[in-house]
Design a protein that fits this description.
Elements lengths: L1 H7 L4 H22 L4 H13 L1 H11 L5 H4 L22 H9 L6 E9 L2 H14 L3 E6 L6 H15 L3 E7 L12 H5 L3 E5 L19 E4 L3 E5 L21 E5 L1 H18 L3 H5 L13 E8 L7 H12 L3 E5 L3 E2 L2 H12 L3 E7 L5 H16 L3 E5 L8 E4 L3 E5 L3 E2 H5 L3 E6 L2 H16 L1 E3 L9 H14 L4
Parallel strand pairs: 2-3, 3-4, 9-11, 10-15, 11-12
Antiparallel strand pairs: 1-7, 1-8, 2-5, 5-6, 6-7, 8-16, 9-13, 12-17, 13-14, 14-16
C-alpha cells in the first residue's frame, strides 16, 4: 500500500496520464476516420474525444463501433438459398425500391404470403400465445427486452410447457436489453429442455462482445412457416392479456408463407453467432414444406446491421421516399434522420407531396425529443404535417408510400437503428396490405394533434441551447 501511495504522488504520474490519454485519443480518432460513418456521426465523436478525452475515449472504445469487421466476420452472413421461397418479379412501379434493397444485401421480394396487422398490445399478446400453443415442431423467438413482469413470466412459463412437450424452443435475448432477465429468470425454460442464449454480452476481452452493437430485432417464428414481427418487446409496456393503463401503442404483423421462412433464416444466423452452433447444422433443421405458399401478398424481408454488407434499411427507406408521387407517411417514436433523409423529405414537402410525420407528443427519452425539434420545425416550414400522438407513449414504426408500398418492423427512424443496431423490417408491396396500413395510420392520426408554430417563451435561450446540444449528440444516441 505504501508503494501505491508513493507512486500516486510521483510527479511524473500526471505527465504519464496525459501522454497515455493523448495516445488513446489519437488511436480513437484514427479508428473513427477509417470507419464508414455518417459525417455528423464522425464529427460528434471527434468533438467528444477532443473536448473531454477522459470521458470521450473510454466511451468510444466501449460504445463507438459500427461495423467491426473482425467481429462481424465471425457472424453467419444472411445469404440463404431462396429455392422454393416464391421469389417473383414485382410490379414495375415499385421495382426500383425492391432492387435497391436487394442490391444492398437484403432478400429479394417473395410472393405467396398472408399478412394480418396487429395494432394493440392485447391483440399482439393473444396472437403470440395462440401461436406458441399451436406450434408443432419449433418456436424461435428473439427480443430486445424480456420484462421481469407478469407478461414476461407468463411467456416464459408457456414456453417452458411447450419445451416439456417436445417442441424445439429457442429464446434469443439481447444481453443489454435483457440485462436483468436473461439468466435466473429464464432458468425454468432451460430446465424444461428449451435453449436460451444472450446476444453479445458486454464483457471485456471476449470475442462475441460489444456494448454498442445491439440486437434490436423482434421476431417470433413458429414451425418455420408463421412469423410475428414488429416493434413489440415481451413486456407489459408493450403487450399483455388484459388492457394496461400505461401500455404503449405499438404495431406489428403476423405473416405466413415464404417471408416467414426468410425471417427464420435471420433468426438462425443470430442464433448461430450467439450460441456458437454452426449455421450449416442449424440450417439442416429446415422443413421442406416450410416455404409453401399461403396467400397472394408480396413481401420483402430486410435484415440490416453489422451482419449485412450494406445499409439495407437506410437505402430502402431513401429509395421509398424518392419514389413517392403522392404521399409519404412516417410513424416513429424517435425521429433523428441523417442529412440525406432529412433533405429528401424537405424536397418532397416543398414539391407538394403529402409528407406526414406521426410522433409521440412526449417519448420515453426526453433527449431525443430535444434532438428532433430542429428537424420537425424545418420540415413543418417546408410544408410537412407534423402530428403528435398522445396521451401516452407511441412506440409504433411504419412507413407508407402512396398506396404502393409500406414498411414495418423493429427499426426507428434514427441513426442508431439505421446504421448501428441489428434490425429487421418487412416491405409490403400488395395494395390491400398497404391500404390496411393506411387505415391503421389514419386511426393514430385521430388521436394526434398537429404541431403548432412555437411561441416566444421565457428561458427560450436555454431551450435552444438544450436543443442544439441534443442535436449535436444525436448521432451518438
Amino acid at each position: 500500500m505504501e508503494y501505491v501511495r508513493r507512486f500516486s504522488e510521483h510527479p511524473l504520474l500526471p505527465h504519464l496520464l496525459t501522454v497515455g490519454g493523448f495516445i488513446l485519443a489519437l488511436f480513437a480518432i484514427a479508428r473513427i476516420l477509417t470507419e464508414r460513418r455518417q459525417p455528423s456521426n464522425t464529427l460528434a465523436w471527434l468533438l467528444v474525444i477532443v473536448l473531454i478525452p477522459y470521458i470521450g475515449v473510454p466511451f468510444y472504445l466501449i460504445f463507438g463501433g459500427r461495423k467491426l469487421q473482425k467481429l462481424v466476420a465471425r457472424k453467419s452472413r444472411i445469404y440463404p438459398s431462396l429455392e422454393g421461397t416464391g421469389v417473383i418479379d414485382i410490379p414495375s412501379q415499385v421495382s426500383a425500391t425492391a432492387q435497391t434493397i436487394n442490391a444492398s444485401g437484403a432478400f429479394p421480394p417473395v410472393g405467396g404470403n398472408t399478412v394480418r396487422l396487429i395494432t394493440t398490445g392485447e391483440h399482439m399478446y393473444a396472437a403470440l400465445e395462440q401461436q406458441i400453443r399451436a406450434a408443432k415442431y419449433s418456436i424461435h423467438i428473439t427480443t430486445f427486452i424480456l420484462g421481469r413482469d407478469e407478461t414476461g413470466k407468463r411467456i416464459v412459463k408457456l414456453l417452458s410447457k411447450r419445451a416439456e412437450e417436445g417442441v424445439k424452443v429457442r429464446l434469443l435475448l439481447d444481453a443489454v436489453g435483457c440485462l436483468f432477465s436473461s439468466r435466473g429468470f429464464t432458468d425454468p425454460l432451460r430446465r424444461a429442455g428449451g435453449e436460451v442464449q444472450r446476444f453479445m454480452p458486454v464483457m471485456p476481452f471476449v470475442t462475441r462482445s460489444s456494448a454498442n452493437l445491439r440486437n434490436h430485432r423482434k421476431i417470433a417464428i413458429f414451425d418455420q412457416h408463421t412469423a410475428i414481427v414488429g416493434g413489440h418487446n415481451l413486456a407489459s409496456e408493450y403487450m399483455g392479456p388484459t388492457p394496461h393503463r400505461r401500455r404503449w401503442r405499438d404495431f406489428g404483423a403476423i405473416l405466413s408463407g415464404p417471408a416467414a421462412t426468410l425471417l427464420n433464416e435471420v433468426f438462425l444466423a443470430d442464433w448461430s453467432f450467439a450460441s456458437g452452433q454452426r449455421y450449416e447444422v442449424l440450417h439442416k433443421e429446415l422443413r421442406p414444406d416450410a416455404a409453401r405458399s399461403e396467400g397472394s401478398s408480396v413481401l420483402q424481408v430486410v435484415a440490416s446491421g453489422p451482419d449485412v454488407a450494406g445499409d439495407s434499411l437506410y437505402e430502402g427507406i431513401l429509395s421509398m421516399i424518392q419514389e413517392a408521387h403522392q404521399s409519404i407517411w412516417i410513424i416513429t417514436p424517435y425521429f433523428i434522420p441523417d442529412e440525406v433523409l432529412w433533405r429528401s423529405l424537405m424536397v418532397k414537402a416543398r414539391a407538394g407531396i403529402d409528407v406526414t410525420l406521426v410522433l409521440p407528443d412526449r417519448s420515453n427519452h426526453p433527449i431525443t425529443d430535444f434532438a428532433r425539434r430542429h428537424y420537425i420545425r424545418e420540415l413543418k416550414s417546408a410544408g410537412a404535417r407534423i402530428l403528435l400522438f398522445g396521451p401516452g407513449m407511441m412506440h409504433s414504426k411504419g412507413i407508407i408510400i402512396d398506396n404502393r408500398m409500406g414498411m414495418l418492423g423493429s427499426a426507428n427512424f434514427d441513426l442508431r437503428s439505421l446504421f448501428v443496431n441489428f434490425e429487421v423490417g418487412v416491405v409490403l408491396y400488395s395494395e390491400n396490405d398497404v391500404r390496411a396500413m393506411r387505415a391503421w395510420a389514419e386511426e393514430l392520426m385521430v388521436h394526434s394533434r398537429e404541431l403548432k408554430p412555437e411561441r416566444a417563451r421565457r428561458y427560450r435561450v436555454i431551450g435552444h441551447v438544450a436543443e442544439d446540444i441534443s442535436r449535436l449528440l444525436a448521432p451518438l444516441l
